[in-house]
Design brief:
The longest helix has 13 residues. The radius of gyration is 16 Å and the shape is globular. The protein is mainly α. It contains 6 helices and no strands.
């Protein structure tokens, strides 16, 4: 990709994730590692990591995802697997950027991660509904904090982080 270099912290993870068919680049030859990931795109990546093809036909379980929307197959698959339940209004919010704490929930459920670990320095900022999943994802080696020990729960996941997270899953044996 023209916009990543061998010295980038995510370089090997991006290449491995692309090679495994979990992520892809853009038609202009870029990867756009700092672009945010939508909930739909994260669902597709995670479902593909679990061996599901996004081209399989599906019926949407959510009011805001049509049966012919791109990503409906992966979203429906994650719903059927109990990985996502959407919000209290029956929506998936596919075009919203996914936060780190939301991604932790998807990951912990997808890989049946359990356990606890040392608290992040910004533990008080992690939503109560996400806390157990965040620490399970950390204990399983799926997600890490930054050098300062913070998790940044409401920050959005970027493409480079998504590649790294999914390669963490691969490295820890959660993905074949």
């Amino acid at each position: 990709f023209s916009d990543i270099d061998e010295g980038d912290w995510y370089y090997n993870n991006v290449l491995r994730a692309v090679d495994l068919g979990i992520l892809s680049g853009y038609s202009d030859g870029t990867f756009k590692p700092n672009n945010n990931i939508t909930r739909c795109d994260f669902a597709i990546m995670l479902a593909q990591a679990l061996g599901h093809s996004n081209s399989d036909p599906a019926t949407s379980p959510f009011k805001d995802v049509a049966d012919n929307d791109y990503g409906v197959s992966s979203i429906a698959y994650l719903y059927e697997q109990g990985i996502t339940a959407g919000d209290d209004k029956g929506n998936f919010n596919p075009d919203a950027n996914i936060t780190r704490q939301e991604a932790a929930i998807f990951l912990a459920k997808a890989f049946e991660a359990t356990g606890t670990s040392e608290a992040y320095t910004d533990d008080a900022k992690i939503a109560s509904w996400a806390k157990d999943f965040v620490y399970a994802a950390k204990a399983a080696g799926l997600m890490n904090g930054d050098a300062a020990g913070t998790f940044r729960p409401t920050d959005y996941i970027i493409r480079a982080e998504a590649a790294s997270i999914l390669m963490n899953a691969k490295n820890h044996g959660y993905i074949d």
